[in-house]
From TrEMBL:
Residues 251-350 form the CobW C-terminal domain. It catalyses: GTP + H2O = GDP + phosphate + H(+). Belongs to the SIMIBI class G3E GTPase family. ZNG1 subfamily. The keyword Transferase does not apply. SMART domains: CobW_C. One of its GO terms (molecular function) is nucleotide binding. Keywords: Chaperone, Hydrolase, Nucleotide-binding. InterPro entries: CobW-likC_sf, CobW-like_C, CobW/HypB/UreG_nucleotide-bd, P-loop_NTPase, Zinc-reg_GTPase_activator. It holds the Pfam family cobW. GO terms for cellular component: cytoplasm. This is CobW C-terminal domain-containing protein. The keyword Nucleotide-binding applies.
Length: 367
């Protein structure tokens, strides 16, 4: 069945990373000319909607976006991730009720935004879920200056937005690589791989990336990219034994691979308890699972405590091959992650397969 929901791309990134420049680049590539005045469907045959959030009294970004789109929704004086999310809901509700539907929606968040609540918006009620689908969270990274934001000392309890933006990325655009030295770029790449090892990185200058790698990417859908991500993590290794005992106070990721099948009841109980107790610190979770008692391959994908499940039967992930070993893989990205506890908890969900009882030997008749 064809998915008729409007794809939404959330473009995030710290202040000055090049988000508005990226939007202009996308619009320029979508249209046949660099600047095209509005026409009902645009020269490219697509109707694009931009939702912008500018933190400040005057919206500068709106004036910087080229005039190639039908409509720009502005939301000023606040961060899209917190106090004005109600405005975002109202804008989306307005869009949802339009007769003329948009072909794609781009949400450009302020540089101080946490992407998680923005993504949560699309899972709030059935109306949102039926009308929109999150296509990808695209994070812009300033290769020259991002480490200043990452290493910035924050008061206790204060979020480091730059780290969270890295953690939530489905696609990561490493911008301004021409301005960074080799050592600076190496440090940034090491930081990215430490926070979000499986993310696809697109390097560029002036936000000029291959638009086809951003549009209709379906990167937020767990089944499409999760297998490749987990395989890449396996190839890279999950870290030394010493690292597994580190209680990381910064944003990090934990990957776990188990041979065997999980007990469904044990896993549901463990995951539910984990997210209820540590949901705010677990930014993203995802996994491919083999469950005892079923031939289906199961997948899960979570943003904080909001979870989605899918299966090979539903087409979310490729089914088990006949000779494919039953292996469970999970990734947790977040803050204050206890690697040892996560590994122990996940392993406790393994199903205990009882050996078949042998038939009792019949006694020989006495002579």
């Amino acid at each position: 069945m064809q998915d008729t929901r409007t794809p939404v791309t959330i473009i995030t990134g710290f202040l000055g990373s090049g988000k508005t420049t990226l939007i202009n680049h996308i619009l320029t590539k979508l249209f046949t000319h660099s600047v095209v005045q509005y026409s009902p469907k645009g020269d490219h045959g697509r109707k694009i909607c931009i939702i912008e959030n500018e933190f400040g009294e005057v919206n500068i970004d709106n004036a910087l976006v080229i005039d190639t789109i039908e409509e720009i929704f502005e939301m000023n004086n606040g961060c899209i991730c917190c106090n004005i999310r109600g405005d975002l809901v109202r804008v989306l509700d307005k869009i949802r009720k339009r007769k003329n539907k948009f072909d794609a929606i781009f949400i450009e968040t302020t540089g101080l935004a946490d992407p998680a609540p923005v993504a949560h918006t699309f899972f709030m009620d059935d109306g949102m879920k039926e009308s929109f689908r999150v296509d990808a969270i695209v994070t812009m990274v300033d290769c020259k200056h991002v480490m200043l934001a990452i290493n910035d000392d924050r008061p206790v309890g204060c979020l480091n937005e730059a780290e969270r933006q890295l953690a939530f990325a489905d696609k990561l655009i490493l911008n301004k690589v021409d301005l960074a030295t080799k050592d600076e770029k190496k440090e940034v790449l090491a930081c990215i791989k430490g926070v979000n090892p499986g993310v696809e990185i697109l390097e560029c200058e002036y936000a000029k990336v291959d638009v086809e790698k951003i549009l209709d990417a379906r990167a937020f859908e767990f089944g499409k990219t999760l297998t490749a991500e987990l395989e890449a993590r396996d190839a890279a290794g999950s870290g030394s034994d010493e690292e597994d005992h580190v209680h990381d106070t910064r944003v990090s990721s934990v990957g776990i691979v188990l041979d065997g099948e999980l007990d469904t009841e044990k896993f549901q109980e463990w995951l539910s308890k984990l997210l209820s107790e540590h949901g705010p610190d677990i930014f993203r979770s995802k996994g491919i699972l083999a469950m005892h008692g079923t031939d289906e391959k199961l997948v899960f994908h979570g943003v904080h405590s909001i979870l989605q499940f899918g299966s090979s039967t539903e087409g979310n992930v490729k089914a088990w091959e006949e000779d494919e070993p039953r292996v469970c893989r999970a990734v947790f990205i977040g803050k204050n992650l206890d690697r040892e506890a996560l590994d122990k908890g996940f392993r406790s969900c393994l199903a205990v397969v009882k050996p078949r009882s042998k038939e009792p030997k019949s006694k020989e008749p006495e002579a």
